[in-house]
Amino acid sequence: MQAKLLRVLQEGEVRPVGDRQTRKIDVRVISATNRDLTDAVARRAFRDDLYYRVGAFPIHVPPLRGRREDIPLLAERFLVAAAERHRKRIPGIDPAVQELLARFAWPGNVRELQNEIERAAALALDGEVIGLAHVSSKLRALEDRSAAPGATSEERPAATTSDLRDARTAFEVQFISKVLREHNGNVSRAAQALGISRVALQKKMKEHGLR
Predict the structure, then answer these.
(1) Can you tell me the distance from the alpha carbon of 126 to that of 130, in angstroms, rounded to the nearest whole number?
(2) How is domain 168-208 classified at the CATH fold level?
(3) Taking the mean position of all CA atoms in its chain, how far away is CA 81?
(4) Is pLDDT of 157 > 50?
């Protein structure tokens, strides 16, 4: 498949399935990956000639936690779309919630932020601003910690089942992402390192929005 794609990029032509004639095309190709292609080239898992074709103008997009200034813009955009889907008029997001959104690590990246806003929009009433009551417990936990920074473990409120579930999910996402990075995105090797089957890991990746 890499060789076929390289031909398309080099020659600017394709041959439709079942056709005997090639057709000239004029397209601009934008590709994306979460893998280290230079490492893949070194391991001969990715063609070097194709790499130099698709990598003519590389743009590195850091994870969401590395560009927190984008969070308010993305959150507002997701809220507009979610409000439209739910057929609600939601004026905006409370500043206190915006602060929590900016402070959270977002291990699931942009998709996790989108899911958070979608959940909040579903809980909010028509005409209501997104507030602390509408966000998940993992965000409210940040508010609790900031409200009592010097509190001991005995003084802090006991974690609820929902808190523990969210914390476990966040850890699972971070740990799976770490193992996948260590194995350059190779699902089979990552699954072996995690001690689960490839199918089980793929199910976890789909569940958490990991690619």
Answers:
(1) 11
(2) Arc Repressor Mutant, subunit A (1.10.10)
(3) 18
(4) no
CATH topology of domain 64-149: Helicase, Ruva Protein; domain 3 (1.10.8)
Q: 185 and 34 in contact (C-beta within 8 Å)? A: yes
pLDDT, tens digit, 9 for 90 and up, residues 3-25: 988 988 888 888 888 888 889 98
Average pLDDT over residues 88-106: 91
**How do beta strands 13-14 and 23-24 pair?**
antiparallel
Cα 42 vs. chain centroid, distance in angstroms?
A: 27
Helix (H, G, I), strand (E, B) or coil at 183: coil
Specify the amino acid at residue 101.
L
Section 183-190 average pLDDT = 89
Average pLDDT score over residue span 112-117: 94
Dihedral angle, C-alpha 149, 150, 152, 157, nearest 10 °: -40
Percent of the chain with pLDDT over 70: 88
Q: Domain residue spans in the chain? A: 2-54, 64-149, 168-208
CB distance 182 to 193 below 8 Å: yes
